[in-house]
Amino acid sequence: MPIYIDENKCIGCRACIPACPYGAIDMVDDIATFNESCTSCGACAYACPTGAIVLEMARKGEVDTSQYEGLWVVGEITPEGRMASVTAELLGEGRRLAADLDTDVSVVLMGHEIGDLAKAAAGYGADRVFLVDHPSLARYRTQPFTDVLTGLINTHKPEIVLIGASAMGRDLASRVAARIKAGLTADCTELTINPESRLLEQTRPAFGGNVMATILCEFTRPQMATVRPKVMKPMEFDESREAEVIGVPVSIEEKSIATAVLEVIKDETGSDVNLTEADIIVSGGRGLGDPEHFALIEEFAGLLGGAVGASRATVDAGWIPATHQVGQTGKTVHPKLYIACGISGAVQHLAGMSSSDCIVAINKDPDAPIFNVAHYGIVGDLFEVVPAMIEAIKERRGE
Ligand SMILES: Cc1cc2nc3c(=O)[nH]c(=O)nc-3n(C[C@H](O)[C@H](O)[C@H](O)COP(=O)(O)OP(=O)(O)OC[C@H]3O[C@@H](n4cnc5c(N)ncnc54)[C@H](O)[C@@H]3O)c2cc1C
Questions:
Q1: What are the backbone angles phi and psi of residue 174, rounded to the nearest 5°?
Q2: Where does ligand 1 bind, in terms of residues with CB under 6 Å?
Q3: Which regions of the chain are under pLDDT 70?
Q4: CA–centroid distance, residue 169 to ligand 1 (Å)
Q5: 219-265 pLDDT, tens per residue?
Q6: How many domains does the chain have?
Q7: Which of 137, 178, 353, 371 is the most exposed place for a label (fewest CB within 10 A)?
Q8: What helix, strand, coil percent values describe the chain, rounded to 5?
Q9: What is the C-alpha end-to-end distance of the chain, expressed in Å?
Q10: End residue of a domain, out of 197, 229, 256
């Protein structure tokens, strides 16, 4: 993407120099000048107080799409320093897509002291790892991550970039897409390669989940998509896989970053429900009739060692915190067992749980749509069925 300095506007203030993560700006006769390290990431343009640094927008049809090659996954690292499961899932999906394009899969890992993670990325399907290790990247912050990723994309020109639709991914993907003027499809549930056009077909729910829209980015590159955790499946970890590791040197000045992470506070309120990681989820819907009846769902889930999920109707009614919500505007889950109690099965709920391995639905209405996706359906009153199931489990365990 073209970037240039308007010499008439440059006042020689040097604000752009610490903003550049690639050390690409020199002062020549008190005018900022780009050197050969410039990646056109645009960080300097945002720091320039006089608008002297100009990023030119590509117009429709102006991008030479043939220059772009390879599929990238933007890695996410947990606060404990592990590779997030969504990264493994995207690598698995990336491998399938890359096979159709006959290309390779790279992952970008940004963090601090993260060299060990290259092995994990390789085992889950990366052919190449761009490793950006810097103390200022130890915790996610919008500005340095955007600058670094934008620079890498401008330099290496990947054809496709996949990012997890996590809190970090949603923030980063939209910033980077805006910076490089690329299209971005958020919350995709399916990705395929069109065999004729070789374009990425990005499918996601639209109009409140009533329509599945397939979106193409024909004129801009890379084609960028975010995918929620648990939507795609990771490949089996392969210890023997190796990846090329490319260390990316960056020079980030803390003083150029507008935010600092002072402390990371773990949520101790119990609202941090790890639904996306749970193997068993028991969910309650409006059929519970009363917020206090969630105690029955909690007891059932507790007995099975599972987590408590909920429909949006119960969340909107204030019966249970939003962190429990499953569905299009809640969490996407993929447990081994999903038990839906008193949930009708609206499309928006199904969007978040229909890929569960085994779905058991308990509903007194035999025509409830949840039965269309259930592997086992129990037509009955949940206040009779659930206590009977609890009793049976306890009996079997000799409790
Ligand atoms: C843009 C948008 C996004 C949305 N996102 C989500 C989302 O992320 N997640 C989500 O869940 N919803 C979402 N919704 C709402 C969704 O459309 C439904 O309104 C909601 O899922 C209904 O919740 P429910 O099944 O608990 O309630 P209801 O549809 O009222 O169903 C209650 C069910 O309980 C059964 N029942 C009643 N009593 C009993 C009993 N004693 N025993 C057994 N069964 C009983 C009834 O037969 C009925 O089928 C969204 C809607 C929109 C427009």
A1: -70, -40
A2: 208, 285-287, 311-314, 325-330, 342-344, 346, 348-349, 352, 362-365, 368, 381-383
A3: 1, 57-61, 208-209, 267-273
A4: 29
A5: 999 999 999 888 898 999 999 999 999 999 999 999 889 899 998 87
A6: 3
A7: 178
A8: 30, 25, 45
A9: 67
A10: 256
